[in-house]
Amino acid sequence: MTSVTHAESSPVESTRAETAAPAPGRRLEDLDWWRTCSVRFIAPAPELSSTHASFLRDLEAAFARGGNRVIPQGENEAKVDMVVVGVSVPDGPDALCDRIVEEQTPLMLKVRKDQGRQGVVGRLVAVAEVPERLSEMSHPEVVRAARILMARVGVFTVVFVTAGAAPGEVAEATLCTMEGGHPTETEDVAQGICDRLVAASCAHEVAGRHDVVPDAIPAGAWAAARAPKSLTVAGKRMGDLGLLPAPHAMADFVSPRLSRTYAMYLNLQGFSEGMLFAFDPDLNALVVTASGRWGVDKRDLSDTDLVAVDFRMNGNRLRVLAPEGTQPMAPSVEAWEVCALFEAAPTVRIGRNAAGEWAWDPNGTHEVPAIRAGLHAHVGVSYADPALIESIPPDREHYPYGFGCGTDLMIDVARATLAASRAVHDPADTRHYVRWPMLYHGEMALELWGPEQPDEPLRGLLDLFDPQVTGAVHFHPEHIDQPH
Question: Torsion over CA of 473, 474, 476 and 481, rounded to 10 degrees?
């Protein structure tokens, strides 16, 4: 399995240094996944300040300089990758979250209606000017402000712009995503934000690309399966440790009226963060948590909150394996990249141990992917003991910016990250756990099959995050690094 052997590992490994990896040194145009995009700027409202309007013009110019197609006002396009609109946030003595005004109709609904005759719209981006410097706010404050604006305006991406001291000057701009990312640009601000938005536009959504195989798992086999029970236990423990927050309802961010609009017209009722998964040899399937858009509380899972999938994808398309007589929910958006990890992993042999549980066994009866289970959590990590868990730094040369989960580029990142793991690929490496930071929004951690692992999947991995057991991983829900 991979990484440095124990003898070669440093006794101290600062993962804060990894997530604060140096800024990328290559232009986006040099990367093999880069492509130009089409972008429409909605004419700014007259109440926008001169600095706000000037920044939008600078951002439009940056898109044009990069060879992207900026669609002129009034011209139609069959497919638009991005729509950018300036929105107002009133000044005043109240906190930022309290000043954000709720739109009568969400922008995503307005644009969908307007574009219904014209074609498809991709990412919606709201640009708001505020006096606060978001770079000086705490992670929870920024995430809450961004999500409130997203919900009240009706977008999934927000740019907060702060004016500088000189007329028309922009001191900084912070790009906020639904996952909780919020990197800030302070130099050549419009160009920096443009690069980040173009990178995001290059990632195509794969979440939702799945087919349900009816009655694929006998009811008795699903009832007896170990993985669903293990995930239920692990989810509760993750909640107790602070690795999983409570689900978020749209009503947490908007009025009851607007909440009903989202539910009725866009089927949006809320979301929950994080996910967990485990491979079940008896089912020969990967079991994952269901999509958070259904309000699944991953701290309190039931059988209906879990989804069995075939980890072998068909062109980034999943097969959901329905237990007999059921109609499962959609899997978590991270399921696609998790399947990519399982596909890319080498295989090991397992067999039944004395307790009748599946365990690593070089002479075992079954050959399975080397990954046993894992988790994704929206937390930051400041330290991980290299003797117990391998930490893989992000490849910022090839993937300089973060991508949303459930996208094709996130699948590529997952495969590339696993390829860099020594614990996975080098049999001389005796570590059974691997982790890496996902730029701007959290952690992915894997548990591998190996000797002397606990019978319960995920127990050993969560022991590392538990300060009452090994405390080998120091994590922080209130802080996630946002490297430039």
Answer: -90
The number of beta carbons lying within 10 Å of the beta carbon of residue 425 is 16
Among residues 173, 159, 201, 177, which one has the least CA distance to residue 37? 201
State the fold for domain 210-476.
L-fuculose-1-phosphate Aldolase (3.40.225)
Residue carrying the six token digits 């590529």: 412
How many Cα atoms within 13 Å fall on the side-chain side of residue 67?
A: 5
**80-107 pLDDT, tens per residue?**
899 999 999 999 999 999 999 999 999 9
- The domains of the chain are located at 35-202, 210-476
Model-level pTM? 0.92
Output the CA–CA distances (angstroms, integers) from residue 71 to 42, 78, 84, 154, 402, in the order listed: 10, 11, 11, 22, 26
